[in-house]
Amino acid sequence: MKRKLIIILCLCAPFVAVRAQKGLGVEPVFEGKVIPAKRMVKAVVKGEQAKRYKLSLFHSLKMTADSTECCQIEQLVRQDCRGLDSPRVQEYGMKEGRLSYLIAQLPNRQDEQVFLCYQCYEEPRDSFHLTLVYMEGPATMKDLYKMFKTEKK
Q1: Is the pTM higher than 0.85?
Q2: What is the tens place of the pLDDT at every residue in 69-85?
C-alpha cells in the first residue's frame, strides 16, 4: 500500500508543479507550448528540500531558443510583471535591446510569496540560452538575494 501511494505521488508531482503557474503569462512556457519539453531541462524542488530555502516550490526551466522564441518568452515575462517599470520588478537588466535578466515579485498566492526570475544571453548563430524560474514560499527578496549570494544594487 505504501509503495502504491509513493508511485501515485510521483506521477502527480509534475502536474502540481505545472498548476502553480496557472494564470500567468509564462504558463505556456512551463507547459512546453512555446518551446517543446524535449528541448528544455526542468528542475522541480519542493517539500523538505525546498523548505531549507524558505520555499514551498522551486520550478526552473533551462532552454535554448531562436530569436522568435526568445522574444515571445520575454513578452510573456513582461506581461506577468506588468511592464519593466512596475513595482513588481525588483531588478532587471537590458543588453542590446533585449531583456537580459529580471527578478520580480508577483502577487501572493495563498499567503505565499511568488517570484519570477528570467535570464537570457545570446549564443553563437542567433540562438539564446534562457533560464526561467518560478518560486513560491515564505521567502522574502532579502532571503533570495542571500540564497543566491548577490546584493541588490
Answers
A1: no
A2: 999 999 999 999 988 88
Q: What does the angle CA 14 – CA 18 – CA 20 come to, to the nearest 5 degrees?
A: 125
Domain limits, the chain: 2-147
| Cα–Cα distance measured from residue 83 to residue 95, given in angstroms and rounded to the nearest whole number | 17
83/77 Cα distance (integer angstroms):
9
Structure confidence by residue, pLDDT tens digits, 114-139: 999 999 999 888 899 999 999 999 99
For cell 516550490, the residue is 57
